[in-house]
Amino acid sequence: MRDVYDAIIIGAGPAGCAAARTLAKAGLSVGLFDKASFPRDKTCGDALIPDAYHALEKLGLIERVLDISCPLHGMRLFGFDGSDVLVRADSACVPRLKLDELLLNSAIEAGIEFLPGHEFVGLFDEDEKIYRTEFYRGGSVVTARARWVLLATGASVEPIQRAGLLLRAECRSFAVRQYVRNERLAKDFNELVFAFDPAVKGGYGWIFPGPDAIFNIGVGFFGSAHKYNNPRRSYEKFVAKHPLAQNLMRDGEIMSPLKGAPLRTGLSGTRFARGGLLGIGECIGATFPLTGEGIGKAMETGILAAEAIIAEYDPGRAAVAQAYTDSMKALQPKFEVYRKAEFLFNWPYLTNKLVAHAIKSESTRGKVEGLFNETSDPGFLLTLSGWMRMLFANR
Ligand SMILES: Cc1cc2nc3c(=O)[nH]c(=O)nc-3n(C[C@H](O)[C@H](O)[C@H](O)COP(=O)(O)OP(=O)(O)OC[C@H]3O[C@@H](n4cnc5c(N)ncnc54)[C@H](O)[C@@H]3O)c2cc1C
Question: Which class in CATH covers the domain with range 4-72+93-170+264-340?
Answer without folding.
Answer: alpha beta
